[in-house]
Amino acid sequence: MSDERVSLVHPRRSAVAAPVPMIAQATLDRASEEGLRGHLEHDRGTLLATAALGALMVLGGIVVLVNAASLRDSPGPGLGPAAVPTVVGVLLAAVGLVLAARAGWDLRRATKPEPVPRERVVRLAGMLVLLLAFAFLLPVLGYVVCAAFLFTGAALLLGAPRPALVAAYGWTLAIVVFLVFDKLIGLALPVGPWGF
Amino acid sequence: MDQIGSLLDGFGSALSPMNLLWALVGVTIGTAVGVLPGIGPALTVAMLLPITFRLEASSALIMFAGIYYGGMYGGSTTSILLNTPGETSSMMSALEGNRMARAGRGAAALATAAIGSFVAGTIGTVGLTFLAPVVADFAITRFGPEEYVALMAVAFVTVSALLGPSLLKGVASLLIGLTVGLVGIDGQTGQARLAFGVPALLDGVEVVILVVALFALGETFGHLLAGTGTSTVEPIRGRFALTGEDLRRSWPAWLRGTALGFPIGSLPAGGADVPTFLSYSLERRLSKHPEQFGKGAIEGLAGPEAANNAAAAGVLVPLLTIGLPTSATAAVILTAFQSYGLQPGPQLFSGSGELVWALIASLYIGNVMLLVLNLPLVGLWARMLTIPAYGIYAGVLVFATLGTFAAGGTVTDLLVLYGLGLIGLLMRLADVPVVPAVVAMILGPLLEQQLRRALAISQGDAAVLWSGWITKVLWAVVLLALLLPPLLSYLRARRATTSPPEPAPAESPAPRPPA
């Protein structure tokens, strides 16, 4: 076992700032960890995400600048309301541009392309639909029903077996949260036509 | 000694039966939530914020102190038994701790972590007790707007330079946070910025929403894309006690870790995680058993764990005395203060001294409670690790939306949460650290306020920003923090070319925390 002599982190390197990949694998086993190898510097997925983030920042920078231009200046010496947004907007766009450009450059010699299975993307989209439904139905159907469906739906999307059991957990959690936060602590949660 | 008298008064308030109960509830819930894999102290505190909704300020802060320390403690249990630290600062604990657990020494690992946390937390709190009033006094006499501006520049640069894989990505995160912080009505002219006519945005975005979005939603979305697996918890074997040999090797490491953790943590600069890395490499260098490192060397766990907890106490120094949060958790605690109309800063000690000292006293109490609670209950916490990932994240979503609703109260707030959650996912995928965004969102508006104040006083003369020796020193630190990392990596690269490349990790990959 070569493993016995190998350290995980080189002390000298770790002393200043350890490179920290950002995806947490809270409960991933080793097989899934292997599947996640993707999230290291210079792999394709990271570079694509960096490029997308950079592009989004450029867009955000433009929005910030346009918004800043519409602000009226304050009288007297000192900084007006547009000064800081202007600096932030310019930097946002500039850093976004550099990130996107560097990622685009590195993409040409990126390591193995590793497509995310379509099924997972569908699950992510499903989660977004579920969350949006939660937001818009909350004032109509009340907290308990919505939270129960949110828990059940999210757990199933994350791959939970036995839907009936998960639904039971969801309802229990929703009712307990409602009782504790609405009745005991006094946080007024929205209620549906049935009073909870 | 002024501090001792005030502290005794604080104990008088914190030791009332109701406040003891709140502290107990705080440490228990904090540990229980902090133990859940993937949930660090920042998210724990943010999600549990609504619990304190109806409490009076002192009880709420006492409970918060418990949640903070409990969350820290819970996190190290997870790192040791599951090798999945919830935040960067428990990465180092996971290294040796998980190896010890795999070798069947989990009980000793948890014990040295628990006692080390207690020792470091207590010494750190003592440090806080004596250092905080001094810093507050200094700040009150010496700090004008221009000093604050320079200080926040230090915090900005260090937070983005020390976290994450590259300075550029740290800065990107910083700018995203600054942009979110711009949203809302400009205090000086009453004009809405980046609100786009949406009424719910006029008050700005709540910090809790950003924290929950980046940590909870980003994490959940990431799990969906990654596909979840099954958890493998190392069973705890043997007695939950340290042998004489363990203790002999642990205690110097605890003290060294504390000596690194508290001073670095209490600097008004980012990077409370740095002392854990320093402590690990120090222990490795000093150890009489360097060959055990990577295989479960107890000092390699005891040192970083102590450093982590001492730094957690240290972070409260700049937070309470200058109102400067340097970690995501501190940012959330700051908003908790603000929700009670309290503004952390030099005036806090003179204006609301009673409250602050009750909080500090409850930190001592919380530490004792955690030790007493955790030595017998560790089996229970370990059982919580068997909750499958889908259960944890579905529950996190329920509490995340609840917390958002409590903070804002409208559907728009939930939509903002989702949007920021998607940005959080993108940041995760792009390897961009999220902590700078949280810190920048808090500090950005403060920086703007102080900058405007400084320039208004000087009649628009920018030279005031580097007048005085304090500002000069602080700007020098900013330059150093910007120039040092590239220089170090250049030197490291030169050294690497002269020595053989290190072998790649073989058996178990290094732990990968979220942020």
TrEMBL record, chain A:
Transmembrane segments: 47-70, 82-105, 125-158, 164-181
InterPro entries for this protein: DUF1468
Family annotation (Pfam families): TctB
Protein name: DUF1468 domain-containing protein
S-adenosyl-L-methionine listed as a keyword: no
Alphabetical keyword list: Membrane, Transmembrane, Transmembrane helix
Highest taxon of the lineage: Bacteria
Source organism (scientific name): Virgisporangium aliadipatigenens
Key word Transmembrane present: yes
Ranges where the DUF1468 domain occurs: 54-190
From TrEMBL, chain B:
Any matching Pfam family: TctA
Record field: transmembrane: 20-49, 61-82, 107-136, 148-164, 170-187, 310-334, 355-381, 387-408, 415-443, 463-484
Keyword terms, alphabetized: Membrane, Transmembrane, Transmembrane helix
InterPro entries cross-referenced by the UniProt entry: DUF112_TM
DUF112 domain segment(s): 20-438
Domain of life, source organism: Bacteria
Protein name: Tripartite tricarboxylate transporter TctA
Phylogenetic lineage: Bacteria, Bacillati, Actinomycetota, Actinomycetes, Micromonosporales
